[in-house]
Amino acid sequence: MTSYFLHKSSGLFNERIALASSKSESNRALILNALTGFKSELKNLSSARDTQTMIRLLQSTEETADVLDAGTTMRFLTAFFTATNTPKIMTGTPRMCERPIGILIDALKTLGAEIEYLEKPGYPPHKIHGFTDQKTNQLEIRGDVSSQYISALLMIAPTLPQGLEIQLTGEIGSIPYITMTIRQMEAFGVKVEADWKAKTLKVKPQTYTPVTYQIESDWSGASYWYSMVALASHPETKIELLGLKLNSLQGDSAIADIMVHLGVKSTFTKDGVLLEKIPAAKDFRWNFSDCPDLTQTVAVILAALRIEGELTGIESLKIKETDRVLALQNELKKIGAELVEVEKNLKYKVTNFKAYTEIPQIATYDDHRMAMAFAPLCQLGDVIIEEPGVVAKSYPSFWDDVKKITEIK
């Protein structure tokens, strides 16, 4: 096992950080470009492993597509290879094969695809045999499941002979991610009729138009720098994050609003956004349904600042790279805090604060966000991060950037 020892930061820094590009935008743009016949020009594509895996598999002619641990890549490519009638065996890491995909495959089968599970029904690996005749242009899908299922279906919808109408049922989670997909589709010349009141998404048969498309920097990656500023000891600490936009497509841009309550002010500049310290609130409540990937960052901030916090909308974290709820419960104890389930699968609290004396050694569970969410603890004291290489999944240069403000061994 490898690990990084992060020494306590001085707490005073004024840095400019060139963030990694958005993995979410990049992966959607890659599918949309493929649906133009690879005729578009994509600028500032993410260097994240997930995106590089997507690029590799879109170019591959091999029978098997191994997505490694990339959930978005698995879901988007399953729909893409189906719609383009490309026989493929879809597989990934052992953890990837524990993450459900049945809702998406059921939907594709309803449309007319022939897909076979190779091991456990509802989970990868699976074999796409083909897609010839569209049997229906209407689907009903739960709105509280992964938005990636919905985005995967939306992106292939205009290529279907009859188009597609998706009826969402129940509560709709991660609406910003669905909206991101819709707006990117529009950038490639396709219109989506979204009626959020009626919970319907309609896409007529259309043709994608090749374009030049610029990818924004990653707001998920930005969240860890908000945390660095929130936990920094010096009131004059500042960080400017480059490449971020005020009117972002990314749901995780909500971090700017969240951090107003946790001690960080955002000021947009011509190059990005400037982060500065302000007083934090004494308690905190937030529904993370639209931005679940921010949960770990915020939970660590609450624990570190000893702010009682109520978190809702985080049930989807249990089927991510790891069970992120359980991982947080385990690791927050090492810094004298607990994540307590108040209402089963619905409401959690960061609470029960206690002193701790040992240098926390944080397990990362093969999860990039665990490593990056706990790294800002270096503002309070020394911290050890196990298996730091997991950050390659979304932010390969993360540790190089952290070295600008503290020593790593």
- Count of helical regions: 12
CATH superfamily placement of the largest domain:
Enolpyruvate transferase domain
Radius of gyration: 21 Å
Question: Largest sheet, if any?
Answer: 4 strands, mixed
| Top CATH class of the largest domain | Alpha Beta
Mean pLDDT: 95
Portion in strands: 15-25%
Examine the secondary-structure arrangement and name the CATH architecture of the largest domain: Alpha-beta prism
What overall form do the CA principal axes indicate? globular
Q: Which bin fits the share of residues in helices?
A: 25-40%
Q: Strand sequence of the main sheet, in spatial order?
A: 2-13-15-14
Query: Number of DSSP strands?
Result: 21
Oligomerization category of the chains in this entry: single chain
CATH topology of the largest domain: UDP-n-acetylglucosamine1-carboxyvinyl-transferase, Chain
User: Unreliable stretches, pLDDT < 50, 5 or more residues?
Assistant: none
Question: What report would you give on this structure?
Answer:
The chain folds into two domains: 3-20 and 217-402, UDP-n-acetylglucosamine1-carboxyvinyl-transferase, Chain, CATH 3.65.10; 23-195, Alpha-beta prism (UDP-n-acetylglucosamine1-carboxyvinyl-transferase, Chain), CATH 3.65.10. Helix 3 (71-83) packs parallel to helix 5 (147-156) and helix 4 runs parallel beside helix 5. The radius of gyration is 21 Å and the shape is globular. The mean pLDDT is 95. It has 409 residues and is α/β, with parallel strands linked by helices. A four-stranded mixed sheet has the order 2-13-15-14. The chain is built from twelve helices and 21 strands. The two termini are 14 Å apart. It has helices spanning 23-35, 49-59, 71-83, 102-111, 147-156, 175-187, 219-231, 255-258, 295-305, 324-332, 368-374, 398-402; strands spanning 3-6, 14-18, 41-43, 64-66, 88-91, 113-117, 126-131, 138-142, 164-169, 193-195, 200-203, 212-214, 238-242, 264-268, 272-277, 283-287, 308-312, 338-343, 347-351, 361-362, 383-386.
